[in-house]
Amino acid sequence: MGNTTFHPLVTVSATYGTGGSVIAPRLAEALELPFIDRFISGDLPAMARATRSEEGLAEGEQESTPAGRFLSYFARAASVGSMMAPDPMIDDDETIRGRSEEALKSVAAGTPGVVLGRAAAVVLASRPRAYHVRLDGPAARRIEWATGFEGLDKEGATKRQAETDKARTAFVKRLYRVDPADPSLYHIVLDSTVLGVERATAVLADAARSFFEAHPE
User: Fold this and answer.
1) pTM of the entire predicted model
2) Residue 118 in contact with residue 132, Cβ under 8 Å?
3) Which pLDDT value is given to residue 94?
4) In-domain check, residue 63
């Protein structure tokens, strides 16, 4: 890696209903690191322009970019229970991958941050001083949690959970040939539905600090 300075980096992979879009920015604040959202865009920081639901597919993940159309395609496929015909508007894998990874270039090169989504634990697996987090839990608890985050009834949250989890899993599997649920990708896998947002954030912040102390520059 030469003389490059690698500052602290945390990646957060979150299944639907685990509060990833709430916990990740709070974790960034606790660690005093910049926050990079899961919003997929080739030109603008997520914090400036992204408008999204708390746990479902972000609006920016849906139709505004080729990568978004890819995610939206898999969400629709999940809703009907089978794979649909290919969408001719979706770019090839390499193009989608390149656009999705655009916002990761600076952190890959050593700048600090907390990254939500983007298969960052896979993309940045070899990046020094990168601490990888997975938020997950039983579907029933995640659905219950999501009803509070999004104001949905149980039926609506159940449908969104199935669509969102399947779409994001399919996205990572297709682009990187790995299962995002594989625990070997992460330093810690936490069920935030048990701890709640505040305690989960505190646990992750403490664990990350310990990791960075053990892995100095």
Assistant:
1) 0.79
2) no
3) 82
4) yes
Q: pLDDT tens-digit profile of 17-62?
A: 999 989 999 999 999 999 987 654 333 333 333 333 445 544 334 4
CA atoms within 13 A on the CB side of 64: 16
Q: Which residues are bridge partners to 114 per DSSP?
A: 10, 35
Tell me which residue has tokens 């995640």: 142
For tokens 């395609």, name the residue. 73
Which residues does 13 contact at the CB level (< 8 Å), separation at least 6?
20, 117, 119, 120, 121, 132, 133, 134, 135, 180, 185, 186
3-state helix, strand, coil in the chain (%, to 5): 55, 10, 40
Distance of CA 191 to the CA centre of its chain: 15
> Exposure pattern of 84-95 as b/e (b: 16+ CB <10 Å)?
eeeeeebbeeee
d(CA 156, CA 139): 14
Residues 6+ apart with CB under 8 A from 200: 19, 23, 135, 190, 192
Residue 167: inside a domain: yes
Domain of residue 171 covers 35-110+126-192
pLDDT band at 72 (very low <50, low <70, confident <90, very high): low
Count of domains in the chain?
Answer: 1
Q: How many helices (H) and strands (E) does the chain have?
A: 10, 5
Structural domain includes residue 120 = no
d(CA 78, CA 165): 9
Instruction: Assess if residue 134 is contained within a domain.
Output: yes
Q: Please check the confidence at residue 81 and state whether its pLDDT lies above 50.
A: no
Which 3 state secondary structure label does DSSP give 28? helix
